[in-house]
Amino acid sequence: MKTNSLITRRKAIVTGLSGGGGLVLSGCSRELPPTYGNILRMGDVLTYTAHRTLLPGQSLAREYSRKDISSFPGIGTTNPAEPGARFYDATHGPVYERLREYAFTEWRLLIEGRVAQPGSYSLADLKRFHMRTQITRHTCEEGWSAIGEWTGVPLSLLLEVAGVLPSARFVSFYQFDDIADSIDMVDALHPQTILAYGMNGRDLSIPHGAPVRLRMEKQLGYKSVKYLRRIVVTNEFDDLGKSGLIQNGWSWYAGI
Ligand SMILES: Nc1nc2c(c(=O)[nH]1)N[C@H]1C(S)=C(S)[C@@H](COP(=O)(O)O)O[C@H]1N2
Ligand SMILES: [Mo]
Fold first, then answer.
1. Does some domain include residue 117?
2. Which of 70, 85, 177, 222 has the fewest Cβ atoms within 10 angstroms?
3. In total, how many domains does the chain have?
4. Residues 163-174: tens digit of each pLDDT
5. Taking CB atoms and a 6 Å cutoff, what residues make up the pocket around ligand 1?
């Protein structure tokens, strides 16, 4: 981002070099992004290639202070259990309703695919990991932005515990509404990519994605998917069919 100071970038680079995190990117940063055989997608390809080539992979999005926190609307799905909502999922909507009734104590986040230790994590499990809090600006493709404070577990930590296999290249996310999405390993291992369970010092509310949502600060707001239920690590790019962004007419890569 243009607003990043040189110092922030330098710090990011230094942290990247010295950080003890055991995960190493398997050279995916220089590869071509997935193509969709559609000339209109050329713009995405150019942005993706430019970002992955010109920017240090781990440069940080700007972080703000508490006094900058603004009002923050709930957008898109604001309750996955509401039949008739645009992205209502008739299978998982009712499951969400029951989980909510039990204050998400029965909720589990599944991690599977190209990992040595597939598993599932409760909210309490996630809260036992080292947490990260960040105050960032959310930019929606519809033209508004808002600043909020997010608390959660870095996705990189969870991937490390799950033992991501060296061939892994993408991480897919499945939600309680009919939306699925994926990001590449550069974004998945970014220090500001977190599984957030807190917002502005409280538990994440239903409109903002309870119990856990993704916060992805290097792409537009729609990549920060809400209402997570399942994470799948893959070797190959998957457009995720009718639930994915591409078949719904959105850019898969929305870097800012
Ligand atoms: N599961 C799910 N995640 C989602 C959406 C959605 O409709 N469903 N909307 C996206 C869009 S377009 C935006 S701008 C943000 C809005 O997050 P908020 O409701 O916390 O403001 O969530 C994103 N994540
Ligand atoms: Mo959005």
1. yes
2. 70
3. 1
4. 999 999 999 999
5. 72-77, 87, 140, 175, 177, 179, 207-209, 221-222, 224-227
